[in-house]
Amino acid sequence: MTNGSVLSQARATIDHVPRWDDAPMVGRADELAHLLAHVDRAAAGRASTVLLSGDAGVGKTRLLDELTARAAERGVRVLTGHCVDLGDVGLPYLPFVDLLRPVAADPQLAPAAAANPVLAGLLAGRPGGAPPVQTATESRDLSRPLPNRAAPQPVDDGRLPLFESVAALICELSSAGPLLVVLEDVHWADRSSRDLLRYLLARLVDEPVAVVASYRADDLHRRHPLRPLLAELVRLPGVERLELSPLGDAEVGALVRRLAAAAGSLPDSTVEDVVARAEGNAFYAEELLAAGLHGEALPMGLTDVLLARVEQRSPAAQQVLRVAAVAGRRVRHELVAAVGGLDDADLETALAEAVHHHLLVVSDDGRYRFRHALLREAVLADLLPGERVRLHGSIAAYLAGAPGAENAAERAHHARESNDLPGAFSASLEAAAAASGVGAPAEQLQHLEAALALWSAVPDAAERAGRDQAALLMETAAAARTVGELHRAVALLRSALQVLGPDGDPVERARVHYTLSQAMVRVEDVTGAYRESAAAMALVPADPPSKARTWAAATHARMSYSVGALEEAEAAADEALAAADALGFDGAWSDIAVTQVRARPGADPVAVRARLDEALVRARRSGNVDVEMRVLYNLATVAFEAGQIAEALEWTRRGTRRARQIGAEWSYYPAELRHLQVTALYMTGDWDESLAEADLLARVPEMSAHVRADGLLVLVGRGDPSARERIDWARGLIPRLSAHILLDLVTAGSEIDLAAWEGEPQKAVDAALAAYRRLRQEWDDDHLGVLRLAGTALAPVGDAAVTARRTGDEAAVENWTRAGQELLEVALAAVEVYERNYGATMGVEALAWQARVVAEAARVRGEPAVELWREAVEAFGFGHVYEEARSRWRLAEALLATGDRAGAATEAGAAHAVAVRLGATPLRTALEGLIRRGRLDVGGVRVVDVSAVMTPREAEVLRLLAQGRTNRQIGAELYISEKTASVHVSNILAKLGANGRTEAVAIAAQRGLLPV
Asked: Is the overall model pTM greater than 0.90, yes or no?
């Protein structure tokens, strides 16, 4: 079976997802622009050629499809020819037969050439049965004279008339307009076609013809006949190579999501798996997606396609590939030599064959690696089970005898796959220790969990490990916490309690209990955390003081404060602080100091800062990184809550930098520091950096998903279409992470803001109230996050109320007033709950949102409330650049409503400058609408008159629509028929993109097309 037929068979097996070549093109904008530039050059009268290379499935055909479509839109005639893999029985000139089919179908396209008997066989689709060739002179007489061109390479005299006839035909076609000639898969071209291509590219120099010839780079082994031709062609003027590299991960991810859209949303884990395995190859991604939807490891069709290339190689080369596949993605020459069973000469020959045919490539470090990871997967899948186990065993034995060749992780893998479980257990522990030594906690966790999985299967596991199972579980839980896998840490610690049992060592059990408490509070299980810390306190006595008791008391104080058991909290805190001082436990002292500072709101800021500074010094001295990160986070938070955003950013940067140094970027406090940093950058107007920090890593632990969701702040603010996709992603996580308050708040806030900008007030209200109800279930004492939700949702409610008043819709006015009142009451209840528990200690951001809520509520009631909006502007002046600008926008509206046009212009101009700088398109659009509607004199903002959008009659109709007039009333007032009025209304709806009269009035108001 040929590669082509296997590929066809593979494609035929998939019918449940859209084809990638049917979807909008992804990630090839630069390459497409480059090719179109060559088309433009040809249109200007200069022939141009691109030799397009890329691996099979990387997207050459999809790019060429887009190119031909774009070229046709520009009035360029397109001729396309395809080469087919027919082995040694290929038909000569087959791609040119395909190319010239349009001329055969319509001889009038090139009447002189169509009458040429030399071309009769080609045009009739019989390249092997062409009539006897004529002399060169006779051939030239059949078409217009060819201009002088670069001298073509010599060809067989018997073929020269045919070659010149084809060149003349192309010239005749191009005389009517520019021509794009596309030849696909020229790596399969027969010799005659290659010679004809060489001749044409040499002859076509001053013609309006662009030629694009594609070929598979991975098929060009060293003796492939196309290689010397390519080297010759690139020396011709106007000919260049363009390599189509694999797509980037983000582009493959976008492609996969588009392909899967018809089947519903995919879990992020499935998308990420497809992206990682496809390695930028669009066809592989499509096949893997299909497999993912069916639950297959690797699609059989794709396996056949990949193995077809392997099966063409010699037995020795196939043996080398099998050894390399089992060894891993990269393999050293020495390992292949030791395990492959080939003598030196045969090994060298086999490796050369595999490399020259692009199955293996040589890395910079001298190792061999597979051209594509899926090729290795296919070879592995083709191995018999016994052969695979034998090879793994041989490799493990080689690595054990030469430990310098590979690390313990490799040895553990091969030992496990060869069923040497004791060897795999020991090697996994060695690999975990090595990962810990180089600051790689994620890898450490992976190896520790592998060792835990083997514990029961290794009789002398405790002796080999040098510790008991509970201690190994504790170590693994610590690694899980470091990488942000908090739920996994909780599960591991609970397993440690089960292993210890009720009769286990009390000190060890206490240590597990308070460690479990610390983990549980980070997944928002405060009640459970309090229960575990209390259990730890009950297991170890206070006298004599001990490390276990000190940490148990420090942890219990924190959890007691969290559940409101203040007397119990103070007693535990005093005990822990005294014991930590007496025993010199600086880590515990720092931890309890932070707990006390945060549990006592309203304390003197100078004293708080001094306490935290001392805690930081002690934490660093103790070497307890987790406590150090907690202190840094609280230093940043204290500054943030005081409105000192620049100082907060200094602390977040110090914290995230320190976390990177120790490889713990996604443990709890480093993740919270990054969340605070993204938010602070958003506030200060550094939106590009904010978004970059949110998207620093595409893959983050689920408990740190709010950091990626933070990017929504910028995406929604800029009106980026990708915001909806990210909201859907975050919304899909929330049911699994029901207690993840920050993720819920960020997502809900962005959802509300997006609904506000899209003019969907009810959607905004529903989202705000639903989030409020969820927050009440999770947090009893602090609902201040609701202030932002309510304040943002009140904005579109106010817009809807304004529109309803303008159109005289009293029922709608009552409805939106009632919705606004409900949102106001929710916000006031949140403030009441907070003040009941913490007093009047709200931070500056919460106070600013409270001012916004009050001003928006007045707007819903129809009050200009100029002073309330001034208060909102001043409240956000602490450093929240965007929200200050949004408040200025509303202040400008209020000033305009009271007749203060100069004041309105000043505020609108200041807000507009910020919107422009931030790239905040929705806000900028709203401001420019206000400026047009109010005819405000704002420098630098062009005022577009309604006449630029509407005809004079449509402007009159729109004015009456805004007053709530029916078509009959409009007709009567303007002395036109009701039918004519209806036509004008329909035109207005179409121009505004509105679905109804009310929506049209709202859009027109937003765009400044209505009078004040």
From this structure: no
